[in-house]
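Trying the structure run again after the queue cleared.
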Amino acid sequence: MFTSINPATGETVATYAELTDAEVEKKVAAAHAAFARWRTTDLATRTALLSAIADQFEANKQRLGEIATREMGKTLKSAIAEVEKCVSGFRYYAEHGPKLLEPVEVPLAKGTGSARWLPIGVVLAIMPWNFPYWQVVRFLAPCILAGNVGLLKHASLTQGCAQAIEEMVTAAGAPEGLFANLGIPSRRVAPLIEDDRIVAVTLTGSEGAGIKVAEAAGRALKKVVLELGGSDPFIVMPSADLDAAAKAAVTGRIQNAGQSCVCAKRMIVHADIYDSFLDKFAQGMRDAKVDDPMAEDTTMGPLSSVEQRDTVLEQVATAQEKGARLLMGAEKIDRPGAWMTPGVLVDVPLDDPVAQEELFGPVAMVFRAPDIDEAIRIANDVPFGLGSSVWTTDPSEQERFVRDIEAGMTAINQILASVPEAPFGGIKRSGHGRELGPWGLHEFMNLKAVLHAPETAPKDAGSAASE
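Done. Tokens:
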């Protein structure tokens, strides 16, 4: 049994029954049967379904937003914005899908050749609670376009969101078995990965979860994409607009109550502007309105759970024991639910274990760097390599950061956010593989080489429509 608890009040929202083995088997079998049919559908049918799902999300964005806010605490404004991003994701693949799947001509010394993108089968997605709709859409939209079929194992905290996604897909007219939500706990995932009817796995989650899924997928020789934790640097250089940078740093740190893999977590500031930036940033964190997530003017709601809040507070206490100074905030708020204030840690020793960890909550660490070399060294001195944000108007510095920061993504003079068009993913212990854009689409497709002997080559071998 799954229990959904509103982190803003501590009250139970709903309970959801765990699927039995027989119910899981029925859904897996239906998915396997659906793939045999869906893989041969034309692109017009697939893109039409993507557009119809987008319409369902758009028409129900208020209700979907409210479900997410009640289940995991993000502000209603940001929850609705997340649903709107889902709409853009479905529409991106609906609009650009045919172009993304065009065969590519392969010049040969003899004969003609092409490379074709073909579907591979049933993909299992294991998704987290922090962006309960968008994380799923990042896998589901390209999955449908590719001619694949999707199964979702969502987080225990957000079973209501998971059921709502399945409802939207069904209401859009998806064939039976094309997508299904599996209401099961994590301990029941391994047998699914071993099942021959499931051909690939994608996971967004913690480093520990990624290791377990990768091990299981490796034993089964199955493709896996992992988007794991991050401790993203936010670097500010003297040429930056400090007001804009400080404002963005606040947003980047407390959006979704700091519970985002690509939140700006470590502020690395050039010594010449360190004090000025810190004053502006700390004041912005103090000014954040932490209140009812349903209210329009609330800046930050509660964390997703009391357990998550307490984990962050323990990390802050550990950092202080090691010599860090708590400049402000990071205090438990005395009210029912998972509440705390935004916080700022300074003077954190670089060899402190906390400096190497991911603070998955609204607490920033601020570091001083004497020059660009040290800024890059601090940025790279963690096991993660997901995203990064750099603030400088100097083109040579921008290029240096892009080249030398060890991360899958770098945003310049803006906070990092995933967008449908660009590849999303990391390196090092932040995982491997990419979501979104053509790269996310092609991760779970069979790139097939087609070679024609000179005497049998069709006149227009490279223009055949892909499956």
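The first helix runs from residue 21 to 38. Worth checking whether this holds up in the mutant runs.
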